[in-house]
Amino acid sequence: MQVPGGSAMRRWIIGTAGVLAMIAVVAVYWLFYDNRLPTSGSFPIDLAAIRAEAARMPGGGPVRIETETLSHVRVPKIAMVAGSDWSKIDVARMSHRLVFPDRSIVIDTAFDQAASRASNDDSYDPAAWRRLVRAMDEAGAIVITHEHGDHLGGLLASPHLRAILPKALLNPEQFAISPYIKPLRWPPGVRAGYKPFRYHGVRAIAPGVVLIRAPGHTPGSQMIYVRRADGREFLFTGDAASMADNVRLQRIRSRLVTDFFTHENRRAVILQTIALHRLTAEHPQLVLVPGHDGAAIAALQHAGLLVQSFH
Predict the structure, then answer these.
(1) Coiled coil located at which positions (predicted)?
(2) Assigned domain for 239 exists
(3) CATH number where 262 lies
């Protein structure tokens, strides 16, 4: 038996389904594929000025750079590199150590096993965490690329935080209690008396080591230039470029990540990525160390540019 108005109802259902399908396609494109580049603006990376600042402090740079990988999680590449593909890639949480003849500097501190478990990581290395805790204890300085839990969390989870905090060079935004630091918590009372490390533009903190202000991924984001004692140059990008392909393809993280998880200044990060792409084209010997690219870090270790594990 035919229901009165059945043909009109079918047309309405078909039309509505078509509209919903179109909305779904647009949503998927916007969330995962959209990577429109700004038509104006730039992020300045003046390598000559950075080199001059690196030479301002007398002495040689680090003799080697060590990397400790604490955890891994596999995610679709398209989440980390917008408009790429849906294959799974290794997102690693890492810490680095610059080893001088008479001191060391730790760059980024990943996070402890409890935070890794809360982030649903696929694996965690407790032995690497113990080496990181010891490295932070022994370091002359600790610097963080930005105030997210998988970079700052290891510092806050250190059982010796009160003793090592004075040598952590946190800029004001990294030290602030802001939405970017959640779900991390500062232990009660430990912040009292700490003075953030303030600078503008670029600032040398040791021979061959220069901080570069780069707000965008977070307000306190910075990159770290390192000129090794043998003259080889490195640039630790933090999450201005989480993956090597962010720079190679000039594609940042997907909008799903940037707009709903990290809440970053997407335009600023794209401009930084464009600047890094140009910089590496002009200076191909400059070694980029991306913030989370497990495969890229393994390749740098295989090439002898980074040393696996803290020694």
Answers:
(1) none
(2) yes
(3) 3.60.15.10
Both structure tokens of 256: 């799903």
- Tens of pLDDT, residue by residue over 142-192, are 999 999 999 999 999 999 999 999 999 999 999 999 999 888 899 999 999
Instruction: Count the domains in the chain.
Output: 1
Backbone angles phi, psi at 84, to 5 degrees: -90, -105
Residue pLDDT, tens place only, 51-93: 999 999 999 999 999 999 999 999 999 999 999 999 999 999 9
User: Which residue from 273, 281, 234, 235 is spatially nearest to 253, judged by alpha carbons?
Assistant: 273
Query: Is the Cα dihedral 101, 287, 90, 184 positive or negative?
Result: positive
d(CA 204, CA 95): 20
**Which residues make beta-bridge pairs with 222?**
213
Is 135 within the bounds of a domain? yes
Joined together, the tokens standing for residue 142 give 């600790």
pTM over 0.90: yes
